[in-house]
């Protein structure tokens, strides 16, 4: 009987050691990403200023080098303006085509706005943008953005 108990104990130790040797270490945790939700703040209550909705229309010629085969613009929030939902992404095509509409809420009509941009055809997959595009704006509630007057800022590689 003692031999059987000793055999069982010996087998338990051997199987336990073998199991411990084959355990896979847990992968390192992924770095945390910052998430910003400016639309969750009631900016009128925070500032005491009234926001108004503005719509942006783009002017550009067919030979504009910035457009290429297509230009995707993502509005970059910045006081006194904030993007409204799906109105922050616009695709502009080479033949005065567009997909989307710029819609922003502002304390007053902006004189300049910024976009993250990249060149892409209409149905291209989502990809990383290239950098900042700063554009002068004219108009009151209906804003006009003349792409020939926009300036390209640094590409994202330049930011530290």
Ordered list of secondary-structure elements with their pairings:
Elements: H1 2-21, H2 43-47, E1 52-59, E2 71-75, E3 81-83, E4 89-92, E5 98-99, E6 102-106, E7 112-119, E8 131-138, E9 142-146, E10 151-155
Parallel strand pairs: 1-9
Antiparallel strand pairs: 1-6, 2-4, 2-7, 3-6, 4-5, 7-8, 8-9, 8-10
Descriptive notes:
The protein is α+β, with helices and mostly antiparallel strands and 160 residues long. The protein has helices spanning 2-21, 43-47, and strands at residues 52-59, 71-75, 81-83, 89-92, 98-99, 102-106, 112-119, 131-138, 142-146, 151-155. Strands 1, 2, 3, 4, 5, 6, 7, 8, 9 and 10 form a 10-stranded mixed sheet that branches. The chain starts with a helix and ends in a 5-residue tail after the last strand.
Descriptive labels:
160 residues; ten-stranded mixed beta sheet; extended; alpha+beta; 2 helices
Secondary-structure element series: HHEEEEEEEEEE
Radius of gyration, whole Å: 28 Å
Please report the total strand number as a whole number.
Answer: 10
Beta content: 25-35%
Give the overall silhouette.
extended
Largest sheet: 10 strands, mixed
How many helices does DSSP assign?
A: 2
Secondary-structure-derived class: alpha+beta
**Low-confidence spans: pLDDT under 50, at least 5 residues?**
none
- Determine the N-to-C terminus distance: 73 Å
The helix fraction, in percent, is 10-25%
Arithmetic mean of pLDDT: 81
Give a quick summary of the entry.
The protein starts with a helix and ends in a 5-residue tail after the last strand. It has helices at residues 2-21, 43-47; strands spanning 52-59, 71-75, 81-83, 89-92, 98-99, 102-106, 112-119, 131-138, 142-146, 151-155. The longest helix is centred in the N-terminal third of the chain and has 20 residues, at 2-21.
